[in-house]
């Protein structure tokens, strides 16, 4: 046996640095593919969530004429929701509205009108904005009982 010091790394072959360097083109392509795949998955989940919301919370539930409750007939505010428009005082003021589980909203020009849904049947709304007055509206339409 030899009398010199033995190294602890016996049998390890050292590769030149040039052979260990990864291919940058392949690395960047895999990163781009991972990002595109992630965005596709997020888009599919968003679509799935939107479909669930439209099934669980259909806009058809709020179609009809909404009248202000506990107001004199000559001063009563009202609006109508249909699939393609929002009508106030016999004028189309919006062509779409947003409906979430507990809130209805639409824009009339720059003004946002927001209403909180008060019951599970979606037959009563409390106006949240504009905030000068917070009346309660009830639904009276073809597919609902007349609530006034």
Automatic annotation (TrEMBL):
The chain crosses the membrane at residues 25-45. It comes from the Bacteria. The keyword Membrane applies. Keywords: Membrane, Transmembrane, Transmembrane helix. Pfam families: DUF2850. This is DUF2850 domain-containing protein. It comes from Vibrio barjaei.
